[in-house]
Amino acid sequence: MTEVDIIIIGAGASGLMCAIEAGKRGRKVLVLDHANKAGKKILMSGGGRCNFTNYSIEPDNFISQNPHFCKSALSRYSQWDFLALIGKYRIPFHERDHGQLFCNESARDILDMLLAECAKAGAIVQLSTDIDSIERLDNRFPVKTNHGNFSCQSLVVATGGLSIPKMGATPLGYKIAQQFGINVLSTRAGLVPFTLQPEDKEKFSALSGIAVPCLVSNKRQSFSENILFTHRGLSGPAILQISSYWHAGEELMINLLPQVNLEAELKSKRQQKLKNKLKTILEGYLPKRLIASFLPDDLLDVSMQDLSDKQIQLVADQINNWTVKPNGTEGYRTAEVTSGGVDCDAVSSKTMESKQVQGLYFIGEVLDVTGWLGGYNFQWAWSSAWCAGQYC
User: Fold this and answer.
1) What gap in Å lies between CA 111 and CA 90, rounded to an integer?
2) Domains of the chain with CATH codes
3) Is the pLDDT of residue 192 over 80?
4) In angstroms, rounded to a whole number, what is the distance separating the alpha carbons of residues 234 and 141?
5) Are 372 and 53 in contact (CB under 8 A)?
6) Cα(34)–Cα(28) distance, integer angstroms
């Protein structure tokens, strides 16, 4: 049995970051992953450009049953610390909307940087390795795999969540927590597109491919960004964001024209005694196909000067206050993250170590911390991993 100081399960963003930090402390680190390549989700993220962090990171950008848990890690290893590492490797990047930061060239730049730092710190990354069993004996963790048996003083679980199973996502991290009696909160798909009820799907399927800036709300949260109509339902940044705050059976309020008070605007146009049809006026604001799906032809053909208050109210309600009840989500298949996971109350926010089992650590997405869309989940991976790396 090969003895090391630390075994990290998972060669993704948090696992590699933790290996770097622990290796810098002179610890003998072994990273194990069942995948044939390290950092698969890093490589596919952000359309292959990796949205690696955000200029504006606040605890309010994260969802957890323990909302205070993320504060310590995010303050001790911030986006500026990660940007300093990026700067050291001279990786070119750019800012998009809402402070989101992407590589100019390829997500491969981020992965190559992490692997180079691992090599420099002496951390070994062993791929295509399946975990057969983990035990706890004499203050050590014997770990049996299909490629050798190992023993470590500290075991770090960096297995990620259940999202995008085709990339190799498994429930291993949750099973390890449960094996050691650590509470795991129920999980669900986060940052995920919605499917629509059959009648809505039929009604709006013709809109597939149309994107419009909207304000999407429920009783707890709202986001102002694009929504995208798909052949299955609704996607786009505003939809992905609100999905993490959505409960099954709940309605969403969608303002398809958030910059315009349509009732006031149409009444103003009517006052001008315009002879234009309602359809012509609305096409100045929204795509033709969208208008045709939301409003009946006979109403769209009415001239502005002939519109009644009741008709104007109907149009305004449909456009400024569309209420839709999703059928569900597309699930883990297309979800960017997993909401829920290892209960943060069972883990130290300073060290990421289990409060119940000495030497057992949890970092990254396996924990019940879900960031917004826009680089927040990567920053959580870097921050939580950095913290664990100082102590494991």
Assistant:
1) 14
2) 2-185+340-389 (3.50.50.60), 193-329 (2.40.30.10)
3) yes
4) 46
5) no
6) 20
One-letter amino acid for residue 15 of the chain = G
pLDDT 10s digits, 67-102: 999 999 999 999 999 999 999 999 999 999 999 999
**Interhelix angle for 108-120 vs 40-48, to 10°?**
150
**Beta-carbon neighbour count of residue 92 at 10 Å?**
9
CA pseudo-torsion sign 10, 15, 16, 21: negative
* Token output for 308: 């009644």
Which of 348, 346, 363 lies closest to 11, judged by CA?
Answer: 363
What the block records as the tokens of 255 is 């303002």
Burial label, 176 (beta-carbon count in 10 A; 0-12, 13-18, 19+): buried
Residue 390 and residue 21: Cα distance in Å, rounded? 6
Exposure string for 328-362, b = 16+ CB within 10 A, e = fewer: ebbebebbbbbbbbbbbebbbbebbbbeebebbbb
Neighbours of 219 (CB within 10 A): 10
pLDDT, tens only, 33-53: 999 999 999 999 999 999 999
DSSP for residue 354: B
Query: What average pLDDT does the segment 148-155 reach?
Result: 97
CA 108 to chain centre: 20
Beta-carbon count within 10 A of 235 CB: 20
Total-model pTM: 0.95
